[in-house]
Amino acid sequence: MAAEAVVTFAAEGILEKVLSLAEKEFSLAWGFKAELRKLKESFTTIELLLNDVAYKPQAPPIEEWVKKLKGVAHDAEDVLDEFKYEVDRRKVEIQNHMNKKVLNFFSLSNPLAFRLQMAHKIQKINASLVDLERKATPLGLVSKNNDATPQEIRWDRQTHSLIGKDEKTVGREDNVSNIVKTLTDSKTNNQEDLAVMAIVGMGGLGKTTLAKSVYNQDSIHKFFEKRIWVCVSNTFDVTLILRRMLESLILTKAPSKDNQDAILKKLQEELKGKRYLLILDDVWNEDLEKWDNLMECLSKLNSAGESKIIITTRSDKVASIPKKLLPRHELGELSVDECWSIMKDRAFPVSSAPEFEISAPAFEAIGKEIAKNCGGVPLIAKVRTIIMYHSMQLAPFYFYFFHTF
């Protein structure tokens, strides 16, 4: 039991570090996104297995399993500390070069060797964790969680419907046009049942940005008398979703004492005789019963008919659950030129100083080489730009490098 407690503490510390690194987006800039995501998922699973260890007799095989996990946990902690140290060290190194006003690209340490070394270490730890997960089953260990199912352990996030000045729907113009046409087409509006459209794709492809763009189109404003935006994220609680819908309409907090029935009645008053568009952003729930409960409630709010729902999700299963489905939109990867466009617009907006000649052939060639490594994912393109330009303050480095080599 004592060994289990020690490892639980170690595992929680490592999970916290993985989350911290992911939040700071170091993983995207350094090419460790997949490895760190897998590391996080593995430790999350291990934590659930440890909950079961607490209820098992401390037989020698289980004690040996815990001992091995403890060793892997310490190795992972060392690697993550080393990774964070290197990130901080390189930021200081670059800043020192800038302060000396002598910026020689070839004098900066090359992170390639370090990157390969770190990737190998993280992959080795992931392999060890997978092996421990495999060995847990014969020992009779199962995932246990006192508060949530494993599927619900994700980063909580909140989104909104406003489009920021740096949020452009690059490479998704056809998607916007097709979605708007489907939502407002008379052929899809001769029905009383609520119709649901899913925007599906892996994280970072711009599902939320696409939904925002559709939500704010003039033709959507004109067709739907009410528009409602709700970020669902981790918690698929029907009463909470209805409460957020009401708050979106009345622009103030709904009384906390109101139960589901009271909230529904107020929503019926707000939406009586009106077409509405509801965006349910970042949906993860795959529980059919919860979906049926939500759709039953929403159907009571469709008095005018022709109302629509858009859900954004990473899950194909989620996208297939609603019964009345409009054609789904599956987002693919962007082209290199589109990723480069995102990076160029964010790093060097029109208002930038004139010395940054973004049309220079050398600049564009190097920029596109960087864009190739974004994997067609808009979020990676954005984050790499932030890391290079904002966080590390490399504008002088850009100027020197692109105009010298």
TrEMBL record:
SUPFAM superfamilies referenced in this protein's UniProt entry, alphabetically: P-loop containing nucleoside triphosphate hydrolases (SSF52540)
* MF annotations from Gene Ontology: ADP binding; ATP binding
User: In what residue span(s) does the Disease resistance N-terminal domain sit?
Assistant: 14-96
Q: GO annotations under biological process?
A: defense response
Stretches of the chain forming a coiled coil according to its record: none
Keyword annotations for this protein, in alphabetical order, are: ATP-binding, Nucleotide-binding, Plant defense, Repeat
Query: Which Pfam families does this UniProt record tie to the protein?
Result: NB-ARC (PF00931), Rx_N (PF18052)
InterPro entries xrefs: NB-ARC, P-loop_NTPase, RX-like_CC, Rx_N
Q: Does the keyword Nucleotide-binding apply?
A: yes
Query: For the NB-ARC domain, which residue ranges apply?
Result: 173-350
Name of the featured protein:
AAA+ ATPase domain-containing protein
